[in-house]
Amino acid sequence: MGLLDKVETNEEVVKKAKPVAKAAKAAAKKATPAPQKAKKEKKPKVKKARPEGLSSEFEIASSLNRVISWWVNFTVNFSILIGALVMSVTTGGGSGGFATTLLFAGAGLIFIFNGIVLPIWTGRNLGQFTSSTRYIRGDGTKPLFLHGLIVNNIGVLSLIGFIMVFTQAGKIADGGTPIAFTSIGAILMILWIVNWQFSRNSDLRQGLFDLMFGSYLVRYVSEGGETSGFRARLESMSQFGEKYAQRVEDKKKAKLVSSEENKEEENSDSESED
Hints:
Blueprint: H1 2-31, H2 63-91, H3 97-122, H4 126-130, E1 133-137, H5 145-168, H6 177-200, H7 208-213, E2 215-219, H8 230-236, H9 238-273
Antiparallel strand pairs: 1-2
Helix pairs in contact: 2-3, 3-5, 5-6
């Protein structure tokens, strides 16, 4: 019986020792910090290259160049059309009906040539040839042809939009087509205003669509032998614009010289009186 008592006491000691050992292991686990996982190194963000700006070798077109271009394009695009409208009003569609139709057809062909064909073919219109200007990208290449189509015709599109709003706004109550035409016309007018505001407040005179296509209107004079044939004749139109610009500059210089001379005379007169 003594042996059985010893076995029972040993078993009781073992049973009591087990939870103590478990508690000691748990305390040891808490005491030893768990190994931290190595943090992944963040890769430095690489900034995307900004669009290339305009090279210093190019000169932004001046206000005078833009005015020359605008007036030439206006005269070419609308002079025959205005003549046809005047003739149709004065004759009332009588004996001059056929001649008026020819004038309208001629005005349409000229507009298509100057507003669509030339910009796609050469990247310029007659006004830009005359004013020695053209649109280029920052690297000197020609912008996408869509840019020329939009920029050269946005004024005409806004005029069409005004006519649409003027003729259809009073019929909005009818719904359907008048609402659609009025909305389209308003969008065309707003686009012209936004484009003009962008150009007016930009240091490089870039309009909304210039910014979208990354293009600039710069002074451009073709070197001799660079073009031939019909394109060479178009390039020769720049002589008229250059001569006109030179006359304007000469007049400005003459006014400055005369004003300075007048000031000197006034100063000399005041000194003599003293």
